[in-house]
Structures are given as C-alpha cells and as structure tokens.
Amino acid sequence: MEPSSAGAGGNSLASVGPDAQKRRVCYFYDPEVGNYYYGQGHPMKPHRVRMTHSLLGHYGLLNRMQVFRPHPARDIDLCRFHGDDYIAFLRTITPETELAHQHVLKLRRFNVGKDCPVFDGLYNYCQSYAGASVGAAMTLNLGHDIAINWSGGLHHAKMNEASGFCYVNDIVLAILELLKYHKRVLYVDIDVHHGDGVEEAFYTTDRVMTVSFHKFGDYFPGTGDIRDIGYSKGKYYSLNVPLDSGIDDVSYQLLFKPIMSKVMEVFRPDAVVLQCGADSLSGDRLGCFNLSIKGHAECVKFMRSFNVPLLLLGGGGYTLRNVARCWCYETGVALGQELPDDLPVHEYYEYFGPNYSLQIQVSNMENKNKQSQLQDIKCKILDNLSKLQHAPSVQFQERAPETKLPESDEDQEDPDERHNTDSDIELYDHKPLKDSTRSRT
Description:
alpha/beta, Arginase, Chain A, 31% helix, disordered N terminus, disordered C terminus, repressor, transcription, zinc, EC 3.5.1.98
C-alpha cells in the first residue's frame, strides 16, 4: 500500500452489497467454550460465544467461511509471552486446591481471585481461546484475508498477572505469531476499557502500534491517558484516545476514521488486529458508551476496506444478547453480507425478545463528549503521528511458526477424517492455504 492511497483507503472499497470485494475468511470456534463458567453472578459469560455461533449458523454465514476448531495452546505457546511460573500456576490451580496453603500467596501474586476467579476447567479455557487466536494469526500468515475468533480479545492480562476477567493475553500471542511473517502489526481496540495489557507488552517497540479508543477517568483499568505514547523505540507507537461516557456513533466516527486513516498512511502495517469488545455498545451491563451495532461495526467495515490481513477478536461485552447480535453482524461485515434485521428462529431465540431483531435501539443518555474536546483529542493524536517517520524499517527474516496448524471444524468436514488434536504435526513451510470449495465473499 502506498502512503498516498492509504489515507483514503477506508472509503475506497465497498464492504457490503453486490460490489463488495471478496475476502478469504476463516473462523475459529471451540464447541466447548460455552461450557466454561466464571461463577454465579460474574458478568463474564463465555456462553455468549456459543450464542454468537448459533446465530452465525442460522444466518447461513458458517457456509461462507472456512471453519476451524482450534488446537489448544501448549505451554510453550503461552510462555512466548507469559512467565513460566504463572502458566504453571494456571495449569495446576483448581477450585478444590485454591485455598491450600501453598497457593494462597500465589493467588495474590498472580492477581487471581474475585474478578479473575478460579473455576473448573480454567486452564483448558485459556488454552482454547489463546489457541484459537494464535491459530487465526497463522491462517493470516498462510494467505487468508480475514480471520475471526470471537472467544479471544482478552486484552487486560499481563505477563505474570491476571486482570479484568483475563488470564492469558491471546492478543499478544497472536501478534507475536503475526510478527514471524509481518514486519509491522497494527493493534486497534474498540472495547470500552483501555487495552492496557497489549499496550504494555509492546510499549517499547516500533514494530507494533497500539491504538485504543476507551472510556477514561474513574474507570477500570485507569490507564490510557492521551499522554501515554510509548517509550524508547516505541515512542509515538502507542496511541490512546480517551473518551467520556455516552459517546454516540457520529462522535465516535469523527475520531475513529481520521485517526485510523492517518495511522494506516504513516505506519503502513502488514497486518491489523482489531479487538471488537462489545461493551462499548449502548445498554451494556458494565459499559457506559452509546454505540449502536451498526456504529460499532463501522469500525470493522472501515479497517476491512484497507485490504490488509485482518484478525477480528472479541473482548468485553456483558449484555449477552447484544454481544451475540454485534459479533454476528460484524461477521457479516467481514464477509461482505448485509444481514436481515429479523432474527432467524434458533435455540436461543427467546433471549432476544421482545423485538427479536438483530439491531438494537440506543438510549437517550447524555453524550458527555463535547465537540471541542473531541477536536482537541483528534489534533493531539494527529500531531503525535506527524512526529513519526513513515513505515519504520526493520531487519526482517521469515521464520517457521512453532505452533500447530488448526483443524477444520467437525461440522464442516467428514468426521471420519478428523485430525487427532494430540498430533505433534507442525508446519515448517510458509505456503498459502488451498482455496476452499465453499463460497466466500
């Protein structure tokens, strides 16, 4: 992509409709992910991913993508970012042993407790969502245009610490996988909460730029000041867009599009990771923004239009029916498919009453983001970007991935030909995936 064309890239390609440019899209889903349970009263519910998957099936979108069941991430994969002691702790801790004397200090050390509880299958859950994100990154390395993992996007986890319902930072692991074949990776976060774990991991490098649009102030995790811009070689490669409560579609896009156009022009990434946390939607149980589903999805549409390999991940989102609506609609955007508003009848249909529609009504909450404030934020961010040299040059050498190739999902393939997930087969050749016979857009 030439710098001169990158700035206008968001408007150059139609993302939906009959003239949409086709993309090779793959989708990662573990049928077990909806069974994990953080505990009674906890707002994080992996069941939302199962609800999303059901909607995708009944809208006919699964037949338009290559569907993979991910390999669980191995210790060696998780320890590419996380500490050995931390991963060993997650692997061994159980609800039955967490109060044992030898674990009490470690629970405090690794910040595992109320927000990040110990529950049955915790480590398997981490392996599942992290394995899906790393596998999705691999498919981009191998030639797909868009890869999707709605179970991922857990952006708060630190190298040696759980945080904000997140145990393993699948995003960091996926970006590390992308960096094996891509010189520069852009990370964009539209969760209502600041993407602190990802920013921290890449704060001193110029190979990864992080851009986070989030509520800032007296709000978890309390980081993401506009003055936090990176350090050393990473100076100006961390961008934070601090917002106030009640921001609506129009105000959000007044910032998102010009900022991301300039980012694409100056940084010129070889791959983009977009964290699509749905807690920035209107009416979220923990959120405080006022975005519609179409307004939220406009970010996906815009980043898709640059025609750069794109990894779409989940994240926050605590009003389950709206999370499923959002990620289903955004899967349609990735595929270039406009979905009818009337929801198809399916096993979770009653969750979506009384209107049973795909879109949601935004509230009449006050937008506390004044136009003058938004303009000031935009000017500061664009000024920081102007201090960057175009597309940093790096020494770069392709290397073989260490992670396993994911397998096609059992619902899409002959069950008698399924791969043994315990296989030690790994990829050593950088080859494009063969075209699927399934239709894609």
